[in-house]
Amino acid sequence: MNIFLILFAFALWGLLHSVLASRFVKDKFRGLIGRGGMRLYRLGYNLFSVVSFAPLLYLAATLEDQPLYRIPPPWNFLFFGFQSLSALLLFVAAFQTDLLSLTGLRSLFQEENPDQLVPRGLYAVVRHPLYLFSLTLLWLDPTMTVNSLVFYIGATAYFIVGAYFEERKLLRDFGEAYAEYKRKTPFLIPMMK
User: What is the DSSP letter of 123?
Assistant: First the structure.
């Protein structure tokens, strides 16, 4: 039952997160709060996403759980090392995306420019480095339980579905420039196109 509860909570969060990111909902909010109010939308969206994700983490951490495996020392240090590298690359990718804009903080002190295509740095190697390094950070956990496995499966599904919708938006926004970038750059795994 815990598995279904975690998956249901993930699906509910993912649906809500995606709906709030949709152009339709953003246009509705723009009509309600005006262009000036929209300067706070991304920051509010991100804060809401973090706060609404907390119950999901709580469920995965507190529901009855069973261990699946634990990688013993010294091999677990190898996993920790790769997790650290993933965290560092995730941080680099966030900065290459423009961390202040990504979080919504830039709009607090200056007008946001329209989104820009970033085909350099880690984005020249893979189209979704934020997703890739988030997933490697999760999946390289040297201790796996049933709850963490279900949580990681939910996160993976969300990232894949989210990437699909994000790519549709990017094709609408950037047209042929994104189509060309998409042809040249792998999806999540550098060896696969």
Answer: G
Give 140-189 pLDDT, tens digit per residue.
999 999 999 999 999 999 999 989 988 998 899 889 999 999 998 888 76
Q: According to the 3-state scheme, what is the secondary structure of the chain?
A: CHHHHHHHHHHHHHHHHHHHHCHHHHHHHHHHHHHHHHCCHHHHHHHHHHHHHHHHHHHHHHCCCCEEEECCCCHHHHHHHHHHHHHHHHHHHHHHHCHHHHHCCHHHHCCCCCCCCCCCHHHHCCCCHHHHHHHHHHHCCCEEEHHHHHHHHHHHHHHHHHHHHHHHHHHHHHCHHHHHHHHHCCCCCCCCC
Do residues 97 and 42 make contact, with C-beta atoms less than 8 angstroms apart? no
